[in-house]
Automatic annotation (TrEMBL):
Gene3D superfamilies from the UniProt entry: 1.20.1050.10, Glutaredoxin
GO terms classed as biological process: translational elongation
Descriptive protein name: Glutathione S-transferase
GO cellular component: cytoplasm
Species this chain originates from: Marinibactrum halimedae
Database matches in InterPro entries: EF-GSTs, Glutathione-S-Trfase_C-like, Glutathione-S-Trfase_C_sf, Glutathione_S-Trfase, Glutathione_S-Trfase_N, GST_C, Thioredoxin-like_sf
Protein family membership: Belongs to the GST superfamily.
Length: 209
């Protein structure tokens, strides 16, 4: 059985992986590691992750870390259509996943780090210039995402892929920070469709108190 390791609270990187597992149709269990006890830095998790981060997974084939790599693996193994129907579509999926990791997502997660990690968890003041710089970058990047969703409601082709699930996970940061996308029609529709779906509801139910 597939085991996914993460924290007792849902993070955007774990969300990417759990959504991919749900849409892949694979049976899995979620193992919660206690960050206060640094269980993610334990020898066991370090054997699954190069640098002791979550999520990580364990399968009968072996272990793997890094959310993007895990999503690709799950799609290829259990539901290849999630990775694109053709080689060019797979390349486009990689393109979106990579640009979210390197650009769009990096600036969206600035809000999470500043307003959740620094402010709420560490009790430190928010770095307002960092938020301002991230917002400035996103002011021209969000329209690119919105345009990408215009024709078919998905980032690649006419059906859902891991590119959409990765995008949704980053956009979910809007639920806990001042980051938002209410002015973007296609992003709003896309986000609402996945949020209202059975897969997300199943993931979310595993973190309800």
């Amino acid at each position: 059985m597939l085991t996914i390791y993460g924290f007792p609270f849902l993070t955007f990187n774990v969300l990417k992986v759990m959504l991919t597992a749900e849409y892949s149709g694979v049976i899995y269990r979620y193992e919660k590691l206690n960050p206060a006890k640094k269980e993610h830095k334990s020898p066991e998790n370090l054997s699954r992750s190069l640098i002791g981060l979550v999520p990580t997974i364990e399968t009968e084939e072996g272990h793997l870390g890094e959310s993007g790599a895990i999503c690709r693996y799950l799609a290829k193994r259990y539901q290849p259509a999630l990775y694109g129907e053709s080689l060019i579509d797979q390349g486009k999926v990689d393109q979106w996943v990579d640009v979210f990791a390197q650009e769009f997502g990096r600036h969206i997660t600035t809000f999470f780090y500043q307003e959740v990690v620094r402010s709420k968890m560490m009790g430190q003041p928010v770095d307002a210039p960092a938020i301002e710089a991230a917002q400035k970058r996103l002011s021209w990047q969000l329209p690119i995402i919105d345009e990408g969703l215009r024709n078919h409601g998905h980032l690649v082709g006419q059906q859902l892929t891991i590119a959409d699930l990765v995008a949704f996970a980053y956009l979910s940061i809007s639920e806990s920070t001042s980051f938002g996308f209410s002015n973007f029609e296609h992003i709003n529709r896309f986000y609402g469709d996945i949020k209202g779906g059975e897969a997300f509801q199943k993931v979310q139910s595993q973190f309800e108190q």
